[in-house]
Amino acid sequence: MKTYLFSSLFLMLTLFGTLTTQAQQTNDNKNNYVVLTKKVPQLQPIILTAEALKLEEGDAFGEFKVVICGKGIGDITNTEKISGFIKKAKKAGVQIVACGFSLNKFNIDRANVPKEIKVVDNGILYNFQLQKKGYKSISL
To answer: Would you place residue 29 in the very low, low, confident or very high pLDDT band (cuts 50, 70, 90)?
Structure first.
């Protein structure tokens, strides 16, 4: 009876471990990243991190996305605060994404969001969807 129980447990752990590994091996074995942040000034160290990872990983480096959510979302419409980060992000291959839910909550006019910034309906949901595709994720 013990052998049957242990064999079943081993089989289940092996199966679930394999499924998790397969789910994370998407996008041609590239390392993809997503960072969720609430503050535009944090883009500076985030972009520097993306540049370092790109240099370190070479061809294994995939996509790097930054999702901005929360109260500080209004800063993306301030040209003085965001334009330098947009240029640096583009050069580093980093995509900046804005949370539409936060834009709505804090009454930010989407027409004022720079065209280089992608807007998604729900930034937190978008982050989870990317994680399900195997993206490595961190929130700041």
So the answer is: confident
Closest by Cα among 104, 137, 136, 139 to 120: 104
How far is residue 7's CA from residue 10's CA, in Å, rounded to a whole number?
A: 5
Mean pLDDT of 20-48: 80
pLDDT at 139: 87
Domains of the chain in sequence order: 28-139 (3.40.1260.10)
Share of the chain above pLDDT 70, in %: 80
CB atoms within 10 A of CB 109: 9
What is the pTM for the complete model shown?
0.77
Facing residues of 64 across strands?
A: 33, 94
Name the nearest CA neighbour of 90 among 57, 127, 50, 53: 50
DSSP code string of 80-118: HHHHHHHHHHHHHTEEEEEEHHHHHHTT--GGGS-TTSE
